[in-house]
Amino acid sequence: MNIKKQLGTKIKRLRQNRGFTQEQLAEKLDIATRTLCGIENGENFLTAETLEKILRVLNISSSELFAFDHLRPQEELVEEIIHDLRDIKSREKIENIYKLIKAIITE
């Protein structure tokens, strides 16, 4: 996935998590809805000015916006999780992770 697609996917997820429609976010950013749509679809790249507005409106840091590791294919994520779990030596940490996973699954 290229950087425009990754960034667009991330902005779309953040927008949805914050409960904004494309129209609402576009208005807050002072850009056209079709421009935001193009950004979210990875067809257009945002300007530095729009980037600053996105960070402010969505209340996120640039490092959070540009963190894409979790967007990798599901199989890769599962393999990495399993690998990381095998490296944990603390029984208490394993129990906490187990509880967390169970809580997420039963939501």
UniProtKB/TrEMBL annotation:
Keyword DNA-binding in annotation: yes
InterPro entries membership: Cro/C1-type_HTH, Lambda_DNA-bd_dom_sf, TransReg_Diox_bact_type
Pfam families, per database record: HTH_3
Keywords (A to Z) from UniProt: DNA-binding, Transcription, Transcription regulation
GO cellular component, one term: cytosol
Coiled coil regions in record: none
Gene3D superfamilies for this protein: lambda repressor-like DNA-binding domains
Domain HTH cro/C1-type: 11-65
Molecular function as annotated in GO: DNA binding; DNA-binding transcription factor activity
Highest taxon, organism lineage: Bacteria
Protein name: Helix-turn-helix transcriptional regulator
Source organism: Candidatus Scatousia excrementipullorum
